[in-house]
Design brief:
This protein is mainly β. It contains 1 helix and 5 strands.
Length: about 80
């Protein structure tokens, strides 16, 4: 179970203006708020707040469907490209 403030790695499966789909090694309950940023983003890049909408097991990982709390700017969204 994810503890408040706990960091974990996830892989971006896809993204859009509305949200991001992640692959993670652990389940995260729907409704959980997360701060996300690509690992290769510049140090000054902002963290983006998302809310987990769904989470399901898929083979050896968990798929997290997350919605942006605030619509990201086009520059922020390009960080995921």
């Amino acid at each position: 179970m994810l503890e408040p403030g706990e960091a974990f790695d996830a892989t971006v499966l896809n993204y859009s203006e509305g949200g991001v789909r992640l692959s993670a090694a652990q389940a995260v309950p729907a409704g959980t708020l997360l701060n996300v940023r690509p690992s290769d983003a510049p140090v000054f890049a902002p963290w983006l707040r998302v809310q987990v909408v769904y989470c399901f097991a898929d083979l050896n990982h968990w798929v997290l469907g997350c919605q942006f709390v605030r619509r990201p700017t086009s520059e922020e969204l390009l960080l995921f490209a």
